[in-house]
Amino acid sequence: MHINGTDLAVETDGPDDAPAIVMIHGLGATGNFYQIQAQALSENHRVVRIDSAGAGRSATADDISIGRHAEDVDAVFDALGIQSAAVVGHSMGTLVAREFAAKHPDKVTKLALLGAVAEPADAGRQAQRDRAAVLRDKGTSAVAPGVVANALSESTRNDKPEVAAFVRELVMRQDAEGYARNCEALAAAGDPGDIAGTIDLLLITGDQDKVGPPTVSQAIADTHGSATVKILPGVGHWTALEAAGPVTDLLVDFL
Model pTM? Predict the structure, then answer.
């Protein structure tokens, strides 16, 4: 789909006339991050998954940013004739989802944030810029081991090696330049602001998540005032993969 001057991979499942769910992946991932949840949700919903600019099967754009990704989501809504939808975001995608909800609260019926992240601190911004430099110099193979080691819980790495292998493949299959530009987009990210209290909000994270720790989800929930927070034991940052069953059940119930 040609969106805002860039070819984006947009995948839809389920009946076209069913309530819509739009799913936004995180840094280093693709829409396939949500495959298990999308399969379950598509029985009763129109599920839309977008590979963000510079990620997965989508082309790389010159102006990648959190704001640009949110504008792309809005353009996908328009292209598919979606008036309103539930929005699901993971990791960096939670910043995109929050930005979209802040700009278009009338288009968001419900918001589910997995492994929600905050505006990066100075050290985090520099870490993303450093990762971008490594990607341009050495490619995705140089960063994949660190993602697997640091973003998955120890129990996932030990007990679910197939999840670790899939995360490695997601990272390895990224376009290095697109991945680098998305790292820089995260480094430049600001605070999207508060989520409107009129939007139903669910936050899911793992108790071993070092990237989007429970404290971040709880802080967002406290500001919102009526959100539900679910913290999954033994789970790291790749929430929907590490705890596929529980996350699917939570999303089905919520959405």
Answer: 0.97
Angle at 235 between CA 132 and CA 242, to 5 degrees: 75
- Bridge partners for 6 per DSSP: 3
Asked if residues 22 and 77 have their Cβ atoms less than 8 Å apart, the reply is yes
CATH code, domain carrying 62? 3.40.50.1820
Q: Which residue range is the domain that position 36 belongs to? A: 2-120+190-254
pLDDT in tens, 18-68: 999 999 999 999 999 999 999 999 999 999 999 999 999 999 999 999 999
Burial of residue 128 (number of CB atoms within 10 Å: 0-12, 13-18, 19+): buried
Cβ-contact 143, 118 below 8 angstroms: no
d(CA 215, CA 155): 21
| CB 203 within 8 Å of CB 197 | no
Please tell me the distance from the alpha carbon of residue 28 to that of residue 116, in angstroms, as a whole number: 15
Per the domain annotation, does 184 fall within a domain? no
* Separation between Cα atoms, residue 16 and residue 197, nearest integer Å: 29
How does DSSP classify residue 31?
Answer: G
- Spatial separation of the C-alpha atoms in residues 68 and 211, rounded to whole Å: 23
